[in-house]
């Protein structure tokens, strides 16, 4: 069977009341669907994307070579089987792939919001998605799956809408962003803000797409270090040196340096810098217990079957953070949660690349 990939955008005129007290109106949400919705709408699986992801999580567009970011995981006969499930993934508000973000026109003007765009939280992203699903006539779903910032959204769904999903799977994430992750985001923020080509937020986005933004590239390099692990870097690059560079050339490079440069500078040509700043802010201030007396109180409402998956070598969101979430769920008397630490040397990005070490576990959960 085919993937049946469809990309659409919904336009909302009702105000979206944000956690900050601000209002966003109107706003767009771009989303992608795969598979077929069954008659009683009981086969829906929601995918939540990470920081630099998008609604395009599977399949390939006609004009591109690169498949969606979780293509090995989602599709006919894959772990999330689109022969069986109707899969929906939306681009979060604040991002730069079709949903309303800081470079969207501020209605009724045509000028972009830029810094006039309100700070968005993970809770706001989830609230907007729930409004989208209501518009589509989807009032409950079989499962929600997300990793990293997507896992934050999955957990927020569990706390905010306790009966919306039958099963929730959160991978490589946390219940509250810790100082280690915030510190890496600070490097990215400073590098962007101090780049003169950023023009204090008043850059021309077409120029950035063509030329890139070196400050953002440096911030992304720092981020990449946190996405991997010492072991995976050793396995991937070793001490290999670029053959075309002399060992005693001052700027001769190891392969790991070339990798960071390539990924850092390439990234700046397809991801908007203001969106990046807004999304890392959302990640930094994410805390599942905000609005409650404690994490214990926040988790009392959770009613879904909840699966927590961490990766042993994840330095960004450490296994102990997921373990704390699991232990707190036990303390509040939640009977239907499961915790698994996957043995992996890859680091944080294992959830995006090492499908073979956790796909059977996810397949069993969905069964």
Descriptive report:
An 8-stranded mixed sheet has the order 1-4-8-5-9-10-11-12, with helices on both faces. The chain has a two-stranded antiparallel ribbon with strand order 2-3. The protein is globular. The protein has 2 domains: 253 residues, Rossmann fold (3-Layer(aba) Sandwich), CATH 3.40.50.1820; 98 residues, Rna Polymerase Sigma Factor, Chain: A (Orthogonal Bundle). It has 12 helices and 12 strands. It is α/β, with parallel strands linked by helices and 367 residues long. The two termini are 20 Å apart. The longest helix is centred in the middle third of the chain and has 15 residues.
Brief rundown of the structure:
This protein has twelve helices and twelve strands. It is of the alpha/beta class and 367 residues long.
Shape: globular
Percent range for β-strand residues: 15-25%
Number of distinct beta strands:
12
Query: What is the SS-derived class?
Result: alpha/beta
Main attributes of the structure:
Rossmann fold; 12 helices; 2 domains; 16% strand; alpha/beta; 367 residues; two-stranded antiparallel ribbon; Rna Polymerase Sigma Factor, Chain: A
Draw up the topology in text:
Elements: E1 6-12, E2 16-17, E3 23-24, E4 27-34, E5 44-48, E6 74-75, E7 80-81, E8 86-90, H1 122-135, E9 141-147, H2 149-160, E10 165-171, H3 179-193, H4 205-211, H5 214-227, H6 230-237, H7 255-267, H8 273-284, H9 295-299, E11 305-311, H10 319-331, E12 337-342, H11 350-353, H12 359-366
Helix pairs in contact: 1-2, 3-5, 3-8, 5-7
